[in-house]
Target: bis(5'-adenosyl)-triphosphatase
Amino acid sequence: MSLLLTLLLSGIVACCGHPGDSVPRLLLVSFDGFRADYLETYHLPHLQEFIEDGVLVKQVTNAFITKTFPNHYSIVTGLYEESHGIVANDMYDADTKKTFSQFNDSDPFWWNEAVPIWVTNQQQGNGTSAAAMWPGTDVKINNATPHFFMKYNFSVKFQERVEKIVTWLNSSDPVVNFATLYWEEPDVSGHKYGPNDTENMRKVLEKVDNHVGYLKSKLKASGLWDSINVIITSDHGMATCSPKKLIVLDGCIDRSNYVLIDKSPVAAVLPKKNKKYVYNLLKKCGNHMKVYLKEEIPERFHYRHNKRIQPIILVADEGWTIVQNESLLKLGDHGYDNALPSMHPFLAARGPAFHRGYKQSTINNVDIYPMMCHILGLTPQPHNGTFSNTKCLLTDQWCINLPEAIGIVIGVLMVLTTFTCIIIISKNRVAPPRPFSRLQLQSDDDDPLIG
Ligand SMILES: [Zn+2]
Model:
């Protein structure tokens, strides 16, 4: 009878369990341009619920330059931009004379300096990958695309992207264990209104929050919610710009001297003839940008060792815009120094791999890659990330953070001190005087006490 029951139960699990239930699954979601502090400024109930049920990294230090294509590639490769080769949204390769832009991004040449996780997952893993519009996922990188993917088209609605992803995650042949999902907001509105326009940004972020709710409901309806790990993050933040804060290059240097490969706020300048001459003219172009020869770019940017980085790089101060002489049409921008909090996104994650209710102040976005490889059981490609930075987020890792460690050391010291004091006190303790003892002992002595 019990054998029959066991067979029946295993039959039910076999028929109704999820395809590939035994392998860990991971869905990586990016809401473009979601600045870290939006989480505190706006009421976002779906995201808050997601965070309470999982982990939150309040600020993610992203890669320099803080632009969309470069940072999305850093997240999925664990590499700084100089190492993965997507060094800007607009690029030029002097050897091949090729150009790259967001409208001309499908030549594998640009992407092949690194291997993104969706390719490694298919080469090594227990399943295949699927992608809805994450930058690079519709390009044959190292001769492979994700098994399921969509050609990039910004007019495809969020709901449609989610439906595709959920359908693919439900596939049993082949099993999909890694998927990515990308959405253009709140970046588009952040550029349009500026991040401090709370009235307009509130509406946009409420829509983003509803998208999170929709994603959750779809994953729940398909039975994936309890078994899948979901990471929600972004590529960069947003700073307020102003038409009053313009650095006008035409006022300092004639256009015939250089080609502007990438624009504000990090402008890539290719001098036509005399590099030093162009550099010196640009140096005199106001006090609101840094001018670097490629070899002078600060080490902390990790932005020097790639031939696609142009000979002169201009970095505008926060909120300033580099133009040739055009007027400014946007009120928000990103790309600035990655040490600025306004450039930082957040990361939230929930699922069996993650703790519940844990919060951490920061990680680097290149740390996300080794963490994802760990969850999927993959051997990572060489990368710039540090897995131990993410250990406290994960249920299968032992970790101790600095405040906890200090607390434990202080606690142990206090206990030891207390014990030591007790021992010293008890050893030095003098027996209490017993003034009548002799008298009592001698109580039946006949000798007189005195005299
Ligand atoms: Zn943007």
About this structure: The CA atoms of residues 19 and 172 lie 5 Å apart. Residues 1-16, 436-451 have pLDDT under 50 and may be disordered. The two ends are 103 Å apart (CA to CA). The pocket of zinc ion is lined by residues 33, 68, 187, 191, 334 (CB under 6 Å).
